[in-house]
Amino acid sequence: MSTQVNARGFTELATTLQELETLSSKAGPFTKKDECRHAELLAKVSLLKSGVSPLEIREFEKQRLLQAAGLPRAPERARGRDEDNENLLRRFLRGEEVPATYRPKDSETRVYDGQLAGTQSILHTQEAPGGTLVFPEMNANLYEAMKQGDDIFSPEFSNVVETPNGAVMSTPIWDDTNSDAVQVGEGSQSLEVTIAPGVSSKQLAAYAFRSQIVAISSELANDMNWPVYDVLEKIHAARLARGVGKALILGSGVSQPEGLLGGVIGAGAPIVVANGSAANDGNGANTGANSIGTRDIIVLFKALNAKYRRNAKFFMNDSTLSALLSLIDKIGHPIRMVDTTFEYEAGKLKPCYYILGRKVAICNSMS
After folding, report:
1. Which pLDDT does position 186 carry in this prediction?
2. Measured between alpha carbons, how far is 144 from 237 in angstroms, rounded to an integer?
3. How much is the pLDDT for 324?
4. What percent of the chain has pLDDT over 90?
5. How far is CA 293 from the centre of its chain?
6. Which strand ranges, in their side-by-side order, compose the sheet holding 314-316?
7. Cα–Cα distance measured from residue 355 to residue 333, given in angstroms and rounded to the nearest whole number
8. Burial status of residue 100 (CB atoms within 10 A of its CB: 0-12, 13-18, 19 or more)
C-alpha cells in the first residue's frame, strides 16, 4: 500500500498528528468532547493519508457544522469579479509576498538616475511606502470603467493613439474640403498646382496623470465584506475619468493637453451663440445665458461644414442633455429633440442618445 500526500497535505497531516499526540497524552479519562475530537482527528489522518486535500476536508467539516446548526450557508463576504485577485490583494495589504510578475519594474517606480538608458518610461517616481502591486488586467478594466464616467474615453468619440515610449509625435492636419476633382479629356496633361492651403502638423505629446494614493486601514481591509479589489478599481477609474477628462476638454495646451474646446476655437471653428428656449416655451426669461432651445441646436449643426456632418457627434454636459430632454412647447407639451435607445457595451445595457440622428457624447467637463 502506498500513501501520496502533497506539500500542503503533509503540513496539515503533521499538525493533526501533533494535536492527536497532545490529546492522547492528556492525564485522566477522556471527556465526551475529548472522545469526539479524538475520533475526528483519527478520521482526518486517515483521509489525508488517502490523498484527500485539506481544502476538501474543511469544506466537508463546514457543511457538517452548517447542517448541525440548521443554516443553509455560511455568511460570506461578497465575491468580486476575480476572486484570485481579491485574495492576492488582501495578501499584499497584510504585507505578505506576492508574485514578482505583479510588481512593476524598477525603471517605473524609482527616481530616474541616468543609468536606465533604453528602459525608462515617460514617468519616474519614488515607489510608494509599502511597495507597489499592479494587476495585469487592471488596464483593460480601468478603461472600461473610465468610459462609464466620460464618453471622451470611448473610441467612438475620440481617436486613440497608442505609443510605446511617450515620445512627441507629429500628426498631419489637412483641410482639403475645397479641392474638387475636375473633368479632363483624353490625352490631357495634368497640371501641377499648389498644395492645398491649411496643410500643417500637430505635435502630440504624452502626459502622466495619477489618481493619488487611496489610503485604507489594515483593519478595514481585513474586515470589509465587499471585495477590496473591485472597490479600489472603481475609485481609481472615477478619479482618472474626472481628472483626465477635464484636461481633454478644457486643457490649455501649455504643459498640459490641449483640450477639445480650445483646439476647435484655435482652429477657427465658427462660434454659435445660443438664443435660449424662449421660442419654444414662450418664457421670455429663458435666454441663451440660462437655457438652450431647438433652434440653437439646428443653427449649431448647420454651422458645421456639410462635408463633416455625416460623422458628427454632439459633446455636452449631462445637465445640457437633461435640459434638452425637458424642453416643452408653449402649451406645455414635451418637445422630442432627443431620441433615446439602448445598446450593449461590455456586456451591459447602456442608454444612448441621438440628436438630429447624430450620437451624443456625455462629457461632464463641458460647461
Report:
1. 87
2. 9
3. 95
4. 26
5. 34
6. 314-316, 358-362, 348-355, 338-345
7. 19
8. exposed
C-alpha cell at 143: 478603461
> What are the CA-CA distances from residue 150 to residues 139, 144, 310, 347 (Å)?
16, 10, 23, 18
Angle of helix 32-49 relative to helix 7-24, nearest 10 degrees, comes to 150
Contact (Cβ atoms closer than 8 angstroms) between residue 98 and residue 136: no
- Please state, for a pLDDT cut of 70, what percent of the chain lies above it: 85
d(CA 161, CA 152): 13
* Mean pLDDT confidence for 334-339: 93
pLDDT score recorded for residue 1: 41
Q: What angle do CA 97, 102, 104 make, to 5 degrees?
A: 110
In single-letter form, the type of residue at position 152 comes to I
At residue 72, φ and ψ (nearest 5 deg) are -70, -35
Residue 255 DSSP class: S
Structure pTM? 0.66
Write the DSSP string, 24-89.
HT-SS---HHHHHHHHHHHHHHHHHHTT--HHHHHHHHHHHHHHHHT-SS---PPP-S-HHHHHHH
pLDDT of residue 165: 75
Q: Residue 149 class from Cβ within 10 Å (0-12 exposed, 13-18 middle, 19+ buried)?
A: buried
Q: For residue 125, is pLDDT > 70? A: no
Cα–Cα distances in angstroms (integers) from residue 156 to residues 61, 110, 323, 359, in the given order: 53, 36, 24, 10
